[in-house]
């Protein structure tokens, strides 16, 4: 697919990686706008095509008392306000078939969570909206198997699919990224590396997922070096108090330096 086909996506001719970034979950309007304003400023300066990310609800929590959202319509309207305020596209994840049309009325990219990417009805419902469908590679799936998820989208009459790698389960409480999968999956669709989720440490005895955010730049660099089309990362101005996935998020204050270095690395890689 052509990035230029996505409404409001800027800098598509800059020959840069594209970025999906924002908080794990929409916690409120002020926080979403604050994060978006910062990332939009940086990506405009660095000419990085940018899609604001925020989950309108979190359905795959370990514990019943975990934060799941502020209300579907309220969160979706905040995503819409981010888009209109900063003139950027937005992405959110969906979990049920009926979420597809509901979310598509507010956002530009529908994301299928890794645990659900084999759910045919969900993938087809997302594809039938005509929106870009971002397919997270299941932690239990091979890179080669993702061709079938992409084919479900294209067979539904939609050629706008991405594949996002978010790591593979390594034992019970760790994730690894096999970078051999990048060129394999690029045969099927543009490939995004979800850096922050790849650094999760799931299945902790507390029921709260851990993470290793100190390794974010390492994975970003490896992704750029192996030719990913885009990067995905969750960021927050106060990760320690974020309501979801704070343990593996990037502190927003570190984003400028990271993106600046990654743009330089990208320039080096494409000129080799």
TrEMBL record:
Catalysis performed (reactions): D-arabinose 5-phosphate + phosphoenolpyruvate + H2O = 3-deoxy-alpha-D-manno-2-octulosonate-8-phosphate + phosphate
Pfam families (UniProt xref): DAHP_synth_1
Residue stretches making up the DAHP synthetase I/KDSA domain: 15-263
SUPFAM superfamilies to which the protein is assigned, alphabetical: Aldolase
Annotated keywords: Cytoplasm, Transferase
Residues in coiled coil: none
Principal localisation: cytoplasm
Entry EC no(s): 2.5.1.55
Pathway: Carbohydrate biosynthesis; 3-deoxy-D-manno-octulosonate biosynthesis; 3-deoxy-D-manno-octulosonate from D-ribulose 5-phosphate: step 2/3; Bacterial outer membrane biogenesis; lipopolysaccharide biosynthesis
Domain of life (superkingdom): Bacteria
Subcellular location as annotated: Cytoplasm
Family designation: Belongs to the KdsA family.
PANTHER family, A to Z: PHOSPHO-2-DEHYDRO-3-DEOXYHEPTONATE ALDOLASE
Protein name: 3-deoxy-8-phosphooctulonate synthase
Protein's organism: Gangjinia marincola
Gene from which the chain derives: kdsA
